């Protein structure tokens, strides 16, 4: 199989490249870029010297359609909205890592993203690619809206409770922390080392564009689900997301029962590791891997629940889950090319 | 005035030393240590080479009482419980940076700290030294129980709402993040660089010993205050605490009104800087200083409030607030020796 | 005294502001910026909220000359070359933190900096402001060419040997490491957190523009001094420079004699702390202070000397030394406003 | 094949485990520990939850010899000296990651390591396992003395010049920088986060025990090689070593000729990537991989050479090279199980 990546020079594209290099079912991987065509890829990414000789190619849809079997789009917001209509007539499945295809209601997209939504006929075909929850739909999709990094961590943490109706109209408060690579490779004051190192910032208070994505998915699972409180923080590290989620249960459960709900829910999901009672994951314990590790606790003093969910934002939060969906769509093992042991320390 | 510091080799002691070096009202500062007596202090802390020639002295209460006018205790838990009864008969005010004197109810102390509480006659005399809130009591105290780092950030963030009765029985959820220096200088797996760098950890889920300290103070301000949900996280940085606090208001306020409650509440408190509406502080913006910076937001979608409170854990969260209390007790300006500009970047 | 800072929005300008805030002899400090005129300074630097109400003013030479007594220039390269000729007729001393006035030979400047040099009549008046070595000349200068961060660390490390003729034509190899703040506040791939964190880079191999500055000063002290080998590395930290310097002695000395050369040389220089034999400084031991700490060792196996010199690049390497020169020029104590205890940890 | 690891709880052991998990020729891997026998391995290393169910076993030589085919020793210094004589009679090849078997002359070992050397009959059988340089000897060895992290980076950087006789009696100055994981997992002041973060330290000036290891290998290649000057620095990062090496050539070469010496020398060595002229590697470009990346420059002003060599200290500097040697000894492809793409960013 020949695959292509649009937006190869970003961190998402680089991470797909890393994974694909050892994927058992991919023969060739062609890289497209709007900015650096003609430039050897390892010039942007010297860690790939000797590992790839790819020259970046321009984004020309007809030619792309001609030379590849499967397309990953890892471009900045707005690019998929523009390109997917052109891809619609070709028989090439597309996994889009941007937020462009995730929000079903165009007006919601517009109000959170402050940009024009993708055409409705494209949005209608897009399947929300939260692998563990939507395997069946993913299998046959034309477009996969690959989930955002925060929504992946949050939704995998919430799903066992929401899908079992254990939180109905309860408050859900999400305090999320991310490493800097989530902001992409573009230089800005917000990614400047001296501004971030030895510093801890909160950067969007109830204004993050991943909010409607989380709510849309959770409300689809349970219409009683209510709007969340959601803050995102920037931690002085490169990779990793931790979502600490606070809620309360509709009905009374013991800590053990709660724990079992989680273990049972994910018992057939290789990439979700529910920790033992009393254990909570740290972000580095999934570094470089596709795992989502989850810890859960019931506080008997307040009867509230704390859920801790961690991922590597570039893997399970982007490129890793994209390849997981790619595997599902092609009927291969979900772990093909993805069974990385986390790098520790 | 001659002051003494017990526990000078810890980070809290070193930070008091840094402050006192340029304090206008202190003539001499004698350093006591249980472990390194006879050793020059700059051997433990080479950044003080040429700035101090102090030799660490042993902890002998009679001699201490003889040679100093004022005592700071910055020792590990358990030391103050043991030493304060011996100091009781001397006319020397004591500021204790440990948790030993903070909890009024010995059985509560015992159940959270898992160690023997201080004698009740000492606890009775101890004043909780949250400077901005308890100035009057602090002035005349024999013992100051200097607040913990997390409680300082959390209580300064909550006080305007709790003291004005704006949150009654509402839930209060505190998601706190700290730098590593809060764990002290003792080497352990929990402070090992390779385990923490590029990593984000949650380390106490509803089990942190600062929980009863926060609740005791808030309930004193408003007996309707309810037990909190409290998680502490370790961020890969040296200094700084951010507490992100989530709650809801008893009665409806506009965002502007909420903002004004905070600004008005702290208008006479030099060291609390309430940020303008829509602005939130980062930890590095108070680095090396005694400020507590606070941002607040009302989410109209959910009607919940998010409060962000940051401090330098070694300054306002320990040594800085101790010196602030020292100033209050001596009738000096609260800022004497403490008007450090934050170091940025 | 009223001072002005051109280029206040850069890190150098912010650091001068921090120092000047507690300087005993400065009444007012006016901030000038080419980009953000009319904007409150604390908008660029929220750590200064409540500490300054300055509004950034445009750079208009006539008005500047009218309203201030002393000028600091902390602008990007090229600005001083352009502005100093306009300042020449006014009786205002200028301390320039850029490299524009440091190199006496315009053709050397041009070949290393790849830009047009300042006019010769300005260069002639400029005194190289390495405070400890050139106090007399500094006192009466119109223009101070404030030394670069690397040259400060390197020259203070070399001076005792070069000025005593202990290294003649020997090789001198300088392996320098710097934190990221030395690159300024402008966002670029070279200052992107994700590219630098947990990474160690070499970035100029025998091509750094500070090379001729080091050689010019050392050759002025001893014409036999030979061209150096000089590499600069970027360490994943915000502040701090370490220069590790390797050379060999013309004549044989014992380790003790070598040590004494250094101690004696700096015995009257408050800001240079020569460490005891066998002790070497770390960058954080001077963090936020104006110290240059030096360690030295003779290797008896090879008869070579290793000198380790550390500074805070924004302090002794920029703003701190500028204020030190400001003090010298005004006949005040060298430490006025500058006696910061290093922040540790 | 069944392999065993003694010292599995250290970082070296954990990294071998990570590699072996996807090694095509290893059936089983048994973990031995002197301290945590009976404990599940993932309790020490939660990143391995679900990936291994190993229970740590005690170190009993007879049983070990009985149940495995090949042994890795990743224990603290002194352990191999003690255990290898016991292993001598068994037909099990051993790769030792400690320094115990590297130094041929026991008195040299003793004077640098300050501990008792291994028995001479063991030292005689030990082959120095610098894979690229000693492939033939490695193939048939009973014991491999796996090279130290610094010597690996330094010797791969020096080999093209030393083996070609291009540096004879020239000075060789090595300025090495390492991440903290090289110090192992044991907690100490030297690995305390707050002491290292945002700090840069020099920690052994001409006293590092890797000095004789480098000299022994280089002198074996060319007896004219002279004692080196060698300093090691601790950078605030987890993984990675950069060695910056300064020397001068015996005879005059152009920069291009120099470059070609390096490219040609390593053209058949997959894991050494010589960068193009003018390009220098950063440590993160080999992160998590077995590569050693090398850049080289000739300075025409001084006629000196600068060589920059980077590795991941836990991979090519320890576990990776150990597995590479394991592959060589078994006649497999050198890259078996080792073809990791560096993780970037």
Automatic annotation (TrEMBL), chains A, B, C, D:
Localization per Swiss-Prot or TrEMBL: Cytoplasm
Pfam families: Semialdhyde_dh, Semialdhyde_dhC_1
Family: Belongs to the NAGSA dehydrogenase family. Type 1 subfamily.
Protein name, per record: N-acetyl-gamma-glutamyl-phosphate reductase
Catalytic activity: N-acetyl-L-glutamate 5-semialdehyde + phosphate + NADP(+) = N-acetyl-L-glutamyl 5-phosphate + NADPH + H(+)
Keywords tagged on the record: Amino-acid biosynthesis, Arginine biosynthesis, Cytoplasm, NADP, Oxidoreductase
GO cellular component: cytoplasm
Cited SMART domains: Semialdhyde_dh
Top enzyme category: oxidoreductase
Lineage, broadest ranks: Bacteria, Bacillati, Bacillota, Bacilli, Bacillales
């Amino acid at each position: 199989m020949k695959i292509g990546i649009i937006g190869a020079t970003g961190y998402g594209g680089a991470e797909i490249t890393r994974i694909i290099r050892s994927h058992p079912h991919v023969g060739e991987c062609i890289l497209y870029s709007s900015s650096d065509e003609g430039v050897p890829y390892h010039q942007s990414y010297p860690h790939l010297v000797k590992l790839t000789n790819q020259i970046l190619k321009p984004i020309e849809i007809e030619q792309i359609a001609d030379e590849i079997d499967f397309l990953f789009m890892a471009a900045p917001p707005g690019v998929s909205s523009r390109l997917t209509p052109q891809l619609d007539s070709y028989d090439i499945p597309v996994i889009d890592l941007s937020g462009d295809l995730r929000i079903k209601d165009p007006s919601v997209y517009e109000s959170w993203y402050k940009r024009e939504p993708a055409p409705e006929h494209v949005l209608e075909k897009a399947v929300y690619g939260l692998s563990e929850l939507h395997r069946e739909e993913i299998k046959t999709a034309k477009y996969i809206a690959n989930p955002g990094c925060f929504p992946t961590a949050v939704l995998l943490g919430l799903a066992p409770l929401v899908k079992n109706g254990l939180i109905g109209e309860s408050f859900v408060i999400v305090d999320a922390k991310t490493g800097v690579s989530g902001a992409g490779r573009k230089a800005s004051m917000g990614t400047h080392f001296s501004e971030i190192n030895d510093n801890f910032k909160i950067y969007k208070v109830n204004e993050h564009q991943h909010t409607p994505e989380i709510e849309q998915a959770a409300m689809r699972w349970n219409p009683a689900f209510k709007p969340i409180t959601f803050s995102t923080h920037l931690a002085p590290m490169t990779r990793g997301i931790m979502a600490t989620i606070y809620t309360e249960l509709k009905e009374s459960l013991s800590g053990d029962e709660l724990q079992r709900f989680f273990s049972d829910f994910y018992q057939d999901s290789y990439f979700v590791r529910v920790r033992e009672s009393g254990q909570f994951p740290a972000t580095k314990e999934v570094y470089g891997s596709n795992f989502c590790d989850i810890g859960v606790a019931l506080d008997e003093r307040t009867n509230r629940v704390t859920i801790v969910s961690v991922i590597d934002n570039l893997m399970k939060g982007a490129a890793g889950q994209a390849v997981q969906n790619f595997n599902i769509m092609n009927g291969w093992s979900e772990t093909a090319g993805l069974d990385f042991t986390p790098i520790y320390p």
